Amino acid sequence: MKVFQLIYVSLAAEDFQSDALFEMRQRSRAKNERAGITGMLLYKERRFMQLLEGKEAAVRATYKVILKDPRHREVTTLLKVDTSMRDFEEWSMGFQNLQDESARRTPGFSSFLEVTLSVFHFSSDPSRAHQLLRIFRRL
Predict the structure, then answer these.
(1) Phi and psi for 82 in degrees, rounded to 5?
(2) pTM for the whole structure
(3) What strands lie across the sheet with 3-12, from one edge to the other?
(4) 64-81 residue pLDDT tens
(5) Planar angle of CA 77, 80, 83, nearest 5 degrees
């Protein structure tokens, strides 16, 4: 089966507190599950990085909603690729708040995870964004 993956970064319109992140994660998981989308969302210092994967039409429809979401600014696509397997098959939306102290205790945590989740750090080599997101699929 062909799987379409899309990775983007964005700037949050405001700083998300833990309860707001939890609520957003719960709603997104339910929507993604209905749409057959899996993926991973990272949050750090008002910046999001997300990988969405599934059928291309479903991923593009979800991304279109994100582009119009007032909680996101400066939404930039880093990577669009077709692949044969999902990276996050078991996760309707995995999530990690990289500001959370528990993230620093994650096995494999390194200075690579300290980078700002911005287009400037990943646009020259989007595969680094993919690598960063995949670190968390083992948790």
Answers:
(1) -95, 140
(2) 0.79
(3) 72-83, 3-12, 47-54, 38-44, 94-97
(4) 999 999 988 889 999 999
(5) 155
